[in-house]
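Class, carefully examine what follows:
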Amino acid sequence: MTIIITGTSAGIGFALAEYFGKKGHRVFGLSRKNVESEFFTSIPTDITDHLQVEKAISEILKLETRIDILINNAGMGMVGPVEDSTQEEILKLFNLNLVGSVQTMSAVLPKMREQKFGKIINISSIGSEMGLPFRGFYSASKSALDKVTESIRYEVSPWNIEVCALHLGDIKTKIAENRVKSNVSGAYQKTFDKVYELMNSHVDDGTEPLEVAEYIEKLLNKNSWKAHYYFGKFGQKIGVPLKWILPQKIYENLMKKYNKIG
């Protein structure tokens, strides 16, 4: 199969690209940086620039006759109080986490329609199902991608194209080093410091990227997809159904306790 993966310079994306390349698939990695690997072909691409995305897909189609799978993995984190976040920071986040993913889908869909087959996985977050403290805009950007995923599933279904959102919990990567970190004003500093230390410890104790690759491989072997899948440690995944069934106030109190707020 021909697989395109975005955000392959490090972390989950790099692990996915190497994993599927070792399995014998033809893998193309799109990321801002060129990556040296014997298992996949790196095409330097800024997915927030639609011209660069279209050029990358054109290059791939000169080498391959089809595009079977797109994994929209590229993204970034953002931490800080909602009140202190700037317009520039918010737009930068949404431009990558939402617009970049949409542009990549738009670039591969003509070929997938032509071949009447395709699978697209949009990497989301368990945090998209709830407003995480001091990660409000990250949660919002991934939630927006979730809704786009739900919408496009209807639109492309006549061509046997499957789309889903894969919500990940904390994965052991260097995401903490690459997050956008807003200014934190004095009123929030004490609480933010506690929550920030906790969120970084969760990443350090997170699931290994290789486990994500193995899960995605199982997902790709399914004949049909649900709109949403959840992967991560039980303590994080359980937050999703609890939000569906618990009264709002009780759920918020649980979230405060989990995040050591109050």
